[in-house]
Predict the structure.
Amino acid sequence: MSSSDEAYAAFLDRANQAPHPHPHPHPDPHRPVSAGFRSTKAIDPAAGRDDVPPALQNVHQHTYTSETDAPFEPVRLTWRGAALPTEREFQALVDADADAALDTDADDDDNDNVSRVSLAAFDPRNQYTDVIEMVRAAAAGATAVTGVTGSGHGLGLGGQREQLAPVAVYRVPHGPTRAEYFVVGMDAGRARLVGVRVRAVES
C-alpha cells in the first residue's frame, strides 16, 4: 500500500470514529411519542386489553392535534366510587406507582397536579366529537357509536354534551410543555372508568 493509500485509509478510520455533531440529524420515526412523559396507567394490569369496551377498540384511528399528533388510546380503570373521581383521586388512580396514595397534606403545585377541564375547553372546535361519543357509548355499555357525523353536528357544543352523559376530562401535566388528557365516563355497573388517553406537546 502506498503512502497516499495509507493516509486515505487513516482518514476514513478517523471519520468513522468521530461522533456525529447532531445525535439525531433527522426525526426518528420509531422514537416513541411517550418520550418526555412519565409513566401513567391507562389500563389496569389485572384487567388487560381484553376488557377494553368494544366501542373503544378503534379509537387509535383518531389523533389529537398538537406538536405530536398522537393517537388516542383506550382507558379502562377500576373505580368503585359513586361519582366521577376528584382531581386528587384521579391522580392517585393513574399513577403507575403501585404504592401511590392520596396525600392530603401535600403542597399543591399547579405544575404537577391533575386538573379537570370542561369538554368545551378540551374540544372548542368540535374536532373530537367522534371520540367523545365513543367514550359515552363505552360508559353506557354500547358496542358501537351511531349517529355521529364527525363534523361536530349531532350533539352540538360542549355544554350540551355535558348534560347528556357524565363524561369528564382530566389534564395530567408532565412538565411545562407536556400533558396527557384523559376523557372518561363511569361504567358503574362494572365498577370502572372507561374512555381515552392522549399525549400532547403544547410548547
About this structure: The longest helix spans residues 3-17.
